[in-house]
UniProtKB/TrEMBL annotation, chains A, B:
InterPro entries assigned: aa-tRNA-synt_IIb, aa-tRNA-synth_II, aa-tRNA-synth_II/BPL/LPL, Anticodon-bd, Anticodon-bd_dom_sf, Gly-tRNA_synthase/POLG2, GlyRS-like_core, tRNA-synt_gly
Signal sequence region: none
Domain called Aminoacyl-transfer RNA synthetases class-II family profile: residue spans: 251-568
Ribonucleoprotein in keyword set: no
Top-rank taxon: Eukaryota
Keywords: Aminoacyl-tRNA synthetase, ATP-binding, Cytoplasm, Ligase, Nucleotide-binding, Protein biosynthesis, Transferase
Protein name: glycine--tRNA ligase
Biological process according to GO: mitochondrial glycyl-tRNA aminoacylation
Organism: Diversispora epigaea
GO molecular function, a single term: transferase activity
Amino acid sequence: MVNFIRSIVLQTSHCKFHIQNKFCPNYSLFVFQPTFKRNFCTNMVAFNRTTLEEVIKKRFFFAPSFQIYGGVAGLYDYGPPGCALQANILDLWRRHFVLEEDMLEMDGSIMTPATVLKTSGHVDKFTDWMVNDTKNGDIFRADHLVETVLETRLNEDQQARSAELEGTIVVASKDKKKKNKIKAVKLDENTKAEYENILAKIDNFTGTELGEIIDKYTIKNPETGNDLSKPVEFNLMFESNIGPTGQLKGYLRPETAQGQFLNFKRFLEFNNDKMPFASASIGRSFRNEISPRSGLLRVREFTMAEIEHYVDPNNKDHPRFDEVKDIKLHLLPQNIQVEGKTNPIEISIGEAVEKKIVDNQTLGYFLARIHLFLIKLGIKNERLRFRQHMPNEMAHYACDCWDAEIQSSYGWIECVGCADRSAYDLTVHSNRTKEKLVVRENLSEPLVYEKTVLEINKKVFGPKLRQNAKTVEDYLLRLDEEQLEALKKALEVGNGKTTVPGTDGKEYEVFSEFFNIERQTITEYVREYIPNVIEPSFGIGRILYSLIEHVFWVREDDEQRAVLSFPPLVSPFKCLLVPLSNNPAFSDLVRDLSARLRKLSIAIKVDDSSNSIGRRYSRNDELGTPFAITIDFQSVNDNTVTLRERDTTKQIREKVDTILQVLKNLTEEEITWDEVMTKYPIFIQQEIDS
Amino acid sequence: MVNFIRSIVLQTSHCKFHIQNKFCPNYSLFVFQPTFKRNFCTNMVAFNRTTLEEVIKKRFFFAPSFQIYGGVAGLYDYGPPGCALQANILDLWRRHFVLEEDMLEMDGSIMTPATVLKTSGHVDKFTDWMVNDTKNGDIFRADHLVETVLETRLNEDQQARSAELEGTIVVASKDKKKKNKIKAVKLDENTKAEYENILAKIDNFTGTELGEIIDKYTIKNPETGNDLSKPVEFNLMFESNIGPTGQLKGYLRPETAQGQFLNFKRFLEFNNDKMPFASASIGRSFRNEISPRSGLLRVREFTMAEIEHYVDPNNKDHPRFDEVKDIKLHLLPQNIQVEGKTNPIEISIGEAVEKKIVDNQTLGYFLARIHLFLIKLGIKNERLRFRQHMPNEMAHYACDCWDAEIQSSYGWIECVGCADRSAYDLTVHSNRTKEKLVVRENLSEPLVYEKTVLEINKKVFGPKLRQNAKTVEDYLLRLDEEQLEALKKALEVGNGKTTVPGTDGKEYEVFSEFFNIERQTITEYVREYIPNVIEPSFGIGRILYSLIEHVFWVREDDEQRAVLSFPPLVSPFKCLLVPLSNNPAFSDLVRDLSARLRKLSIAIKVDDSSNSIGRRYSRNDELGTPFAITIDFQSVNDNTVTLRERDTTKQIREKVDTILQVLKNLTEEEITWDEVMTKYPIFIQQEIDS
């Protein structure tokens, strides 16, 4: 989906959250198979994205921003349930990662001066290729367009082949605008193979290559049939100016990572100079997508949560690796992908690290922790895999990189990236700013070693070279051991005379009396190193949307009754409070219970509308609220209420105090509803009108 | 501090968080008086901002962003304690406001299309005036520069006067760059009065007026002495382009409010069409300040928390007003300010609303709730006041507006604005988009009333007026009752003939047979209205900084020992865990205790560095961590640990289980340390080396 230059950088720091499915060779034929079963419920109806999208809209999980002004592609507002869901995901993230491991969380600026992003490589490489319709000016992202057109042709080919088998002629697609029917066209075997080959490599083409593909396969604007321009590079950062002069160019950050790297020294000091440690940040980032699509999966503004774990390059073991080593993950390592297969292996992370499938313990530790986090949220294990980047996907400096991919109706989507970025980021910022971003470690035993060193004989060097002394000295000081030995050799060969370039590029004569080059014994008491960075990076919107798909189902008995089975820990609201009717007799109890639930920090939603109880339960199912307390006339008399569980629709009836205690335990996931049902009798009246 | 046009809008929606001190007539002579006493501690040392700033930097509460690149004025990064403090403030905000009152929280886009902000008035009016040094190009915010220069002159005048009294000559200030000493100059009485008058009105000048002041009082660039340009208007929004064509102009939102207004219809539907209700949003907003200053108090990027409470314009009572009516606030209403006084009155909000000092119950309710929130955070009541906007500060559409101002070493700073914005915002967006942003209320009894109405006689009107029919009809349909009666009269006077303007401005002859104007009885079953909006708007960074100042003090016995006495509820970390030394004997207990504390959701910080216990306690005091558990050799034997409280430095020693329970109760503020000290014996060993 991206050009080659970008793909070098992309999959590590820059483009953490783009859709990854290219390594499934059949992905163009991918049709979502809702064959997965949910363990909590057997009454399943096949997944229908349209139904889900209606629920998302109706219950205001999220919706296009500025819609009354016509909206802007790729910008979304989260309504109350979406906002609460996001807050709960972030809260869990903070507890699971930051608090659990004493990570140093920071909250940094979004507006970033251009120099910072020039150093990081974003100004030059954070780009996509775009083409436009030469007649009406419509703009497309080049790789996406090629992908869509070739996919369509392959689909039509497959339909034509099926039809051939069945001896019928099939109309493959309908161009709604033109009201014309287009016939499914069968491709010859060579073309088919070429298309599949292009799609498998779609992330890796340069602009020129994309242009050639467009020409060779006569790809046009599918809407108009018009020709397309040559691909042009487009930087994905939003640009602005800081301050009134307009001279300080700024960009909206494309990731939170750079802000963390720049604070490395402060973090290290805050951490009492102890290594390893991690910084973390939650915040909004921006990418000015050429043509956003796929709802929350490709947007222009998104919330990220990123961890930068700083580690000694010589020792990437993790002190808590033992705690996770037996956790089994679905891994899709490079070698499986190379064979063109997409079935992951299930393997414990301990074994994977031992067998060097995963490069090191720290990377493995985070893969396991990411797995635990996603499962706790409600992501289904069978629809979660970790895919290793292919060597050509990785940045040149990266050691290893794995994406947590979650399957949804859009395919396998990269939702968390986890890369070993080596010392790249700290090195480039350090070089640019001359600020040392290093760790100094007192050695318990001094390090003693031999080294070829150069010592300039100032008494001769300066007076002889005069105004050229500086440029020659600068050159000499940059030489490594091997180069110094070569210089020594050259002086010997030249009988104490040779030439060297200055940093100005000119050649200068030097003599053996100018300096000594010799082997010396070096004793070091302090080791200084630039730490490596292991970076787990989470696209919160992608996780949130995937989760919604994973917990969505429709009651078999009633297609109108959609349910979102969020685990209580992340559900936007924990409990619905419904009086049987809006009879004033209930209002005291409603008020009293609301206050008590709030005091227990249980997020509630009161529904005292005049709708039927069943309708109100149903609305609540769509919000994913796991429990409901119903207040009826009996409640007023004996202070008992019923507690209904969303997925089973079963209820218990107990005294208010008991129900509150049970509910508290349920929302904190200290007991399960199954356990509650064995402990308390099921209440079987009510829900008469549901 | 701003021009006139802006000040109309500013103090309500746009410039919610600028420093407000103009209504203190002596503010130019203001010197921070640390006379306030803290109730928890008597060993006080006078407040010293430099000491505080050192602590803030050393402990990485916050620091300039991109500092290794030289930094950018007005952009700050929050380090671990600042970030945790901010998260705790926001968490409390969410519980205190959103959860407590079932507000509909949303999370909206920052990037906003220009049309939205054109409608809201920001494109035209969200501006400041700037001037530049005509020689070196230095840029200043015009009102700030005038303010600084006149303040300096008044200060020098005062010093000259004092010196005169004492019979000495005083050197008032030192121009460090020029190394010249400048004499304090006494002003004549007229000039002094004029300066004071200008400073009192500094927010309200237009650019032209600021230019006149600069000319009249020969104000120059204080650094260079060079002349200044005429004031030029500068829009404070960061501009960018959305999408690849560059044709869709966008701005970074200057507030979250507009995003909430645009979703009004969705909110109302989500709330089952019930009124009143509130939406809320927490998020980053931006203002491209001309010259940011005063640390976190005037920045280019900041976190806001805003509530938009939608209310029936005919009934601004609040159902829960009774719960707050006895709360006493420090109010500084208009009439006191008009008299030039700055001493607030202390009055219950019930009485203030009853006496119409505060316009309505809902506004009063929020003032009281804001007060409770700030006090709970740790803001000192004696340094908190609510200042009413003067009529010239308020937007033309606003009914009433109060700022919660917190006193810090920078003066009284507006930290929360609370405005009744009438129906302004919903009306302008509705007019612009033609989307009805209204509430429809079924009337329990139909509304019956008499009304003068116009009925056009289409058979005559169209044929007679022909191509002009539309423009005349449009004009007629806009007439109110009074205008209709006048038209009827005009026809009577003109014997059934008169002229009216069309919407095109031309005059047209109309005759009485064109239409009927008569009194009719109207029966309405549904009332339709645009709700009014009451908007409490919180500048989180300002509150955070003010809080840090309020809880900061230095132990009398040791000036090196600064303390931040955050209440446990908001303190960045709740508990420090310190083993007596880094003896491996302690490590099991440290690990075990860490895990148990995490499970209790108590944010901890382990300090197993080799520093002395005293040094580690002291570092912790600077982080504001209220409690510390110390593990020593006795702990390993009898499973007891000590619990130290930050402000008193007193300790108790109990079994681990007891300490954990006490700590849990303390951090949730269910018991106080005083209560703990009466229940458990004070432990008096240890802290030997502190």
